[in-house]
Design a protein that fits this description.
single chain; 295 residues; mainly beta; Porin; twelve-stranded antiparallel barrel; 3 helices; 14 strands; 44% strand
Length: 295
């Protein structure tokens, strides 16, 4: 009910009552709160759960720099210092075009991949006058694999090296401690690495965040494939880790069986097995720069 409507309802009674010590009409109306809609924020502390995208995006005119590292598998032994001697890196930049729309680009040494994406928040979880139970974001990504050794051919056109991914990200923050996310996804390769590999991989990803303290959370993500199961050399991507917030930085420390840090390859091209010790230690460093005027 608006203040004007409330005033029209109360005015006749106030004129009839008029006690000597009555409150003024403005004082009375100030005690009645207008119904408000409150957006639920910080479902995740980063635009990425671990490697996968979360529903979060940089705020309008914020630039997020993400530096990701994955070391070699821990089963490589002491000679490789359990993977520390081997490293894969991705550097990326995400930019908030608006509070709901973000774009990003990146380059990874894994398969010498260039990638870009767009993400739009369709729904924002809220409570109050307008109650929306979940946040809903759409994420579309494209990547080009430029490694000349990947396909054992130097004459491939650029379009043949392209991969794509499309995802619907559905997340809910159940309170200050727990957030869960569902990620129905499809990844497409214009040219597959082997003849028996499908061009389209479907997966129903899941992820979550459990707050352990004011600055530390436990994060996880899992991409079970819905097709192409049982093929030798392919496994579902599984990552576990911790987010540590320190002012303008968010450090993400994790263990994962995938080297890819871009969804077109992350979803269907994971070759490592947790059971065989193909586990990579890695970390992400997230640093936000506020580029808007007056911020």
């Amino acid at each position: 009910m608006t203040r004007k409507t409330l005033l029209a309802c109360l005015l006749p009674a106030l004129l009839l009552a008029a006690p000597a010590r009555a409150q003024s009409l403005d004082e009375l109306l100030d005690q009645i709160e207008e119904p408000r809609t409150e957006l639920v924020r910080a479902t995740f502390k980063s635009p990425r759960v671990v490697s996968a995208q979360s529903v979060e995006s940089p705020a309008r005119q914020d630039l997020l720099m993400v530096i990701g590292h994955r070391f070699g598998p821990v089963n490589s032994g002491l000679q490789e210092l359990f993977g520390i001697d081997q490293a894969t890196m991705r550097m990326g930049f995400d930019y908030g075009l608006g509070d709901r729309l973000a774009v990003g680009v990146g380059r990874s040494s894994f398969q010498k991949t260039y990638d870009g994406f767009v993400k739009y928040r369709i729904l924002w979880q809220s409570q109050g006058e307008r109650n929306i139970p979940v946040s809903l974001s759409w994420h579309s990504a494209a990547a080009v694999l430029t490694s000349t050794r990947l396909y054992n051919r130097d004459d491939l056109e650029l379009v043949s090296r392209m991969r794509y991914a499309h995802q619907l990200l559905v997340a809910r923050k159940f309170g200050p401690r727990l957030s869960l996310q569902l990620m129905p996804s499809v990844a497409h390769s214009n040219l597959t690495l082997t003849a028996d590999e499908p061009n389209d991989i479907f997966a129903l990803g899941t992820g979550g965040r459990l707050k352990l303290s004011n600055r530390v959370t436990l994060n996880w993500e899992y991409y079970p494939r819905l097709n192409d199961r049982g093929r030798e050399g392919r496994h579902d991507a599984l990552s576990l880790g911790f987010d540590i917030e320190t002012g303008g930085h968010v450090f993400q420390l994790h263990l994962t069986n995938t080297l890819s840090m871009a969804e077109p390859s992350l979803i269907g091209q994971t070759t490592g097995s947790w059971l065989d010790g193909d586990i990579h230690f890695g970390f992400n460093i997230n640093r936000t720069f506020a580029l808007g005027k007056g911020r």
